[in-house]
Design a protein that fits this description.
- With 100 residues, the chain is α+β, with helices and mostly antiparallel strands.
- The chain has a domain at 24-79.
- The protein is built from three helices and three strands.
- The protein is elongated, with a radius of gyration of 22 Å.
Length: 100
């Protein structure tokens, strides 16, 4: 009986600890273009997804159907439940241009 109470107390304590933890996920932004010259849509599309480029390509037909170029990636941290993909972090203009 004492062991049963200890297990129950441990269970509720672990729930309290796990509620304090936060999930995170990585977002990828890349361009996608059809590799088939006879495809109806030959435009390049910007895709923002939680799938990495290799998984995205495999899911949508593989190397024979898509060409993908990774543009950037970032992490979405904190409580991410019920949210759309988070926005990318801002970059200072002098970082991009190389001006100090």
């Amino acid at each position: 009986m004492k062991l049963k109470k200890s297990i129950i107390v441990l269970f509720f304590l672990s729930i309290l600890v796990f509620q304090k933890t936060h999930a995170e996920y990585r977002v990828f932004q890349f361009t996608v273009k059809a590799t088939n010259p006879y495809s109806m849509d030959q435009k390049t599309h910007l895709v923002t997804s939680t799938l990495d480029p290799q998984s995205y390509k495999a899911y949508h037909g593989g190397n024979e159907t898509l060409s993908i170029d990774l543009l950037r990636t970032w992490m979405c941290r904190g409580n991410t439940s019920g949210q759309e993909l988070c926005a990318p972090p801002l970059v200072k203009a002098d970082t991009v241009t190389g001006v100090n």
